[in-house]
Amino acid sequence: QVQLVESGGGLVQTGGSLRLSCAASGHTFSTYAMGWFRQAPGKEREFVADITWTGRTRYADSVKGRFTISSDNAKKTVYLQMNSLKPEDTAVYYCAATDDSRWYRYEYDYWGQGTQVTVSS
User: What string of H, E and C letters represents the secondary structure of the chain?
Assistant: First the structure.
C-alpha cells in the first residue's frame, strides 16, 4: 500500500499562486508516477498533471503554462506550483500514484484525501 498526504490548499484571489505538496509513504517502490487530479462541485474528477520518477511530465491543456509539477525523489514528494489562478481552478485537488502499466492510460491506484483550492474573483 501507498499512503499519500496532501498539503498547501487554501483561498487565493484571481491571478494569485499556490503550491500544493504531496508526500508518499509505504510501498513507494511500486510506483512509477505521481500526479494531481481535481474535482469541482457537480463535475467529474479530471486530470491536471503528473510526473514520473524519471522526470517525464504531462499536463492538461487547461493548466499548461500556468501550473508546474515537480518532484523530490529522495523525499518521495511531488509539488504542484499553480500560478495565474482562475476561478475555474476552484476544486478539491487530489494527489495520486500509479505504476508503469497503468500510467499510460491515466489510471491511478492510490489517492490522497484531497485539499481544497478556492480562487475568488
Answer: CEEEEEECCEEEECCCCEEEEEEEEECHHHCCEEEEEEECCCCCCEEEEEEECCCCEEECCCCCCCEEEEEECCCCEEEEEECCCCHHHCEEEEEEEECHHHHCCCCCCEECCCEEEEEEC
β-pairing verdict for 18-26 and 2-7:
antiparallel
Please say if the pLDDT value at position 69 is more than 90.
yes
Binned at pLDDT 50, 70 and 90, residue 29 comes out as confident
User: What is the distance between the alpha carbons of residues 76 and 110, in angstroms, rounded to a whole number?
Assistant: 14
Q: Yes or no: say if 22 and 77 are a contact pair by the CB < 8 Å rule.
A: yes
